[in-house]
Design goal:
By secondary structure, this protein is an alpha+beta fold. The protein contains ten helices and four strands, in the order αααβαββαβααααα. The protein folds into two domains: 201 residues, Multidrug efflux transporter AcrB transmembrane fold, CATH 1.20.1640; 73 residues, Alpha-Beta Plaits. 33% of the residues are buried.
Length: 288
């Protein structure tokens, strides 16, 4: 059975319920995180202040064991490892009062080569300023995107469907980042800005194909847009996966991780939620 046949057999309204349920779960997860931890997501040191030691090494390190060794000495410390082609990185985060030399000495005593490292320290007030500016940039970008979408389509329901999809991508990506235990950095906010563009790109492709093209049936136009959109998304995912695996830079890895998550989430939101809303609207209006 063709994908379009399966889509029609299940029914687009039933599929919409599933994708909208995913959004509800993500929103509830964020609200629960805010209720229990006082914030919607964990912030990295460049957004809340603190110190970070990044060590490039070929050694295999037990992050939990190293963290347990450092906590009695430095207090609130988190350790995680990242893997890329050719090397591994150890990221050690602590409060802003930790001294670089003492931290390096303890890591060295643990048996890790610290010849290649970078150290970053940011005061809490500066981190808070970075967070406010980054948050404002994302909000402004989202508002301008919404105005642009309304200007292009000049129809309320199709425009809202595009905006809902972009909102869903951002909210769900943040929720998934919480689930995997990742914190947000300045690079993460840069990725959120990119998500707005990537999300709207496929949504505009779909909505334009359905509303402004008149040849063939609604279903055939939908799946013609689907084939083009999935091809675009797949090629981008392959490029981002290569970037994630090859790059050893933390910031680039953060951006690649968020975009990969967002593009995977964008598939059901665009090709189930958005397509379903626009199709429902067109059927109500008697449009072909």
């Amino acid at each position: 059975m063709k994908l379009s046949g399966l889509y029609e057999k299940i029914g687009y309204k039933k599929l919409m319920i599933l994708s909208l349920l995913l959004l509800v779960v993500c929103i509830v997860s964020l609200l629960w995180n805010y209720q229990t931890k006082g914030e919607f997501f964990a912030k990295g040191i460049d957004l809340q202040g603190g110190t970070q030691l990044a060590i490039d090494t070929n050694q295999k390190v037990d992050a939990a064991e190293l963290e347990a060794r450092l906590k009695p000495i430095f207090g609130d410390v988190s350790v995680r490892t990242t893997i890329s082609v050719g090397s591994n990185s150890i990221l050690i985060k602590a409060n802003e009062n930790v001294e670089k030399e003492k931290l390096l000495e303890e890591v060295k005593n643990y048996g890790i080569d610290v010849s290649s490292y970078s150290f970053q320290k940011i005061e809490a007030s500066l981190g808070e300023s970075f967070f406010i500016q980054s948050r404002t940039a994302v909000i402004i970008a989202f508002i301008f995107m919404a105005f642009t979408v309304f200007f292009i389509f000049r129809s309320f329901v199709p425009s809202v469907a595009v905006i809902l999809c972009a909102f869903s991508d951002i909210v769900s990506t943040i929720a998934v980042m919480n689930w995997i235990g990742a914190s947000f950095s300045l690079a993460s906010f840069a990725a959120l800005l990119l998500i707005i563009g990537y999300s709207v790109d496929t949504d505009i492709l779909l909505t334009t194909k359905l509303i402004k093209r008149k040849e063939d049936s609604i279903l055939n136009r939908s799946f013609a847009a689907f084939k083009t959109g999935i091809t675009m998304t797949t090629t981008t995912l392959v490029a981002l996966l290569a970037l994630y695996l090859i790059s050893g830079a933390t910031a680039i890895g953060d951006i690649a991780t968020i975009l990969i998550i967002a593009l995977l989430l964008d598939m059901p939101y665009t090709w189930i939620t958005n397509m379903g809303i626009v199709r429902w609207w067109m059927e109500k209006k008697g449009l072909e």
